Amino acid sequence: MAKKVAIVGAGVGGLATAARLAHDGYDVEVFERLPACGGRNSLLEDSGFKIDMGPSFVMMPDFFEEVFSYCGESLKDYLDLRVIDPSYKIIYSDGEVLTVHQDSQRTKEELERIEPGAAKQFDKFIRETARIYGLIRPLLYRCVTYRSLLHPYYWALAGKIRALESYWQLARRYFKSDKLCYAFTFEAMFMGVSPYQAPAFYSVITYTDHVQKIAHPMGGMYQIPLALEKLAKKFGAKLNYNCPVDSITEGCGRLAIKAGSRIIEPDYTVVNADYAYTQTDLLKRKIPEFKYSCSTYLIYLGLKKKLDKLAHHNLFFSKDLNKNLDQIFKDKLIPEDPSFYVHVPTVTDPSLAPPGKDILYLLIPVSNLRKSSDDLSKHEERIRKLVFDKINCLCGCNLDELIEVEHRFYPQDFIGRYNIKYGATFGLAHNLTQSAFFRPANFDAKIKNLYYVGASTQPGGGLPVVIAGSRIVADLIKQRKAS
Ligand SMILES: Cc1cc2nc3c(=O)[nH]c(=O)nc-3n(C[C@H](O)[C@H](O)[C@H](O)COP(=O)(O)OP(=O)(O)OC[C@H]3O[C@@H](n4cnc5c(N)ncnc54)[C@H](O)[C@@H]3O)c2cc1C
Fold first, then answer.
1. pTM
2. Which atom in ligand 1 lies closest to the alpha carbon of residue 245?
3. Residue range 374-384: average pLDDT?
């Protein structure tokens, strides 16, 4: 008889694990507390606007392809991924705009305008990050433990991937101006950590942005969990929605999962729910003093008409980025003049809004709720106005007059909707002491047959990396079965 696997959570990590294990012949059942799949990759629908609530950048498409080929399928039969151009726009506080194009030659012309000589430096930076990417990539499919630290290979690797240097320091080796250093490290913010704290090896994200380019799934980001759900169902996985798991307990050598009135005793359990929440709330354990990523304040807008001048992805940088980062990560304050991100998916994919209308998704990084020294509710209208003013100034519009629908999502909503500890949007922070060996492993050290997949475990957060984590878990379970 097929071994039974229970998966707690139908985020991208849970769905990808379900698809792999169902394909491998396991009897897979998923328990998700929300009414639909996707987790942080959720969809909000209102008045014909289809607004993706979470991720918006598709990077490292080969990681997406891998899960489909693992199951003997082809990604293109499930997702229509298109490379977008321009990749993104950076709008500095003095009004200068840097456009990053699909064509690196055009990007280099932009860089030269901001810092003479930067085109050559860009080539060197890309060569260095390509080298690091080559070393890091295989690690993303491996669960490494403290025991691995004893191996000389990993000691040598730490030096080669510049583990003790920060993302910012790496960029500074190549670019003189703060403007370009920020342009080549802002991705750290989207892992919820400051570029001053993120290790240099996370620059592989900048590398993939520039070299592998950025894609968009036609029909919106929500097509990604839908595609994984379809894949999992094709191989017989059973998905239960509106089905929260209340506890995971160990007794008589087996785990018992309580989901409403049901008690399930599977052979293997994979938890996709946030790692810190799982430890405290489902397993009733004490957790170490983890560091958490920042949170985010999100404003989702459906506009009556289309805007000019914005690209699909836009980053507005604060006047004083240093202060902005300190306020979020050190002082735990709501930033005075925040940097923010604007997603306009309707630039590439008009099908997401009624004809002639636009979607604007505004993401403002703020401190998480752990020992926060501030309260967003005191600042939310000020921040909304500040952000709107900057967009109005660039686009020559009055956003308030254009709004047809508006929804807001606060740090507390990450707890209420997804059970994310302290509303830390991206889960556990990606600093050195919580990366690789130091990040929670994909298996439980004390309870046999309990596994973890998702943003706060190895190899880390972000859609492609979480999908790689699902491969690690599937491999671990198969090895366990074989042993
Ligand atoms: C605003 C935002 C922007 C982002 N931007 C990007 C981006 O551009 N590109 C990118 O690659 N990544 C991005 N990310 C990160 C990416 O979305 C996440 O890393 C990824 O979606 C995490 O997936 P997961 O499977 O780990 O967890 P989740 O999506 O959190 O899924 C966990 C699931 O577990 C469920 N659950 C929790 N508790 C229980 C319980 N007790 N019982 C049953 N179910 C439970 C939750 O409801 C949820 O569905 C972004 C994230 C956010 C929030």
1. 0.97
2. 42
3. 92
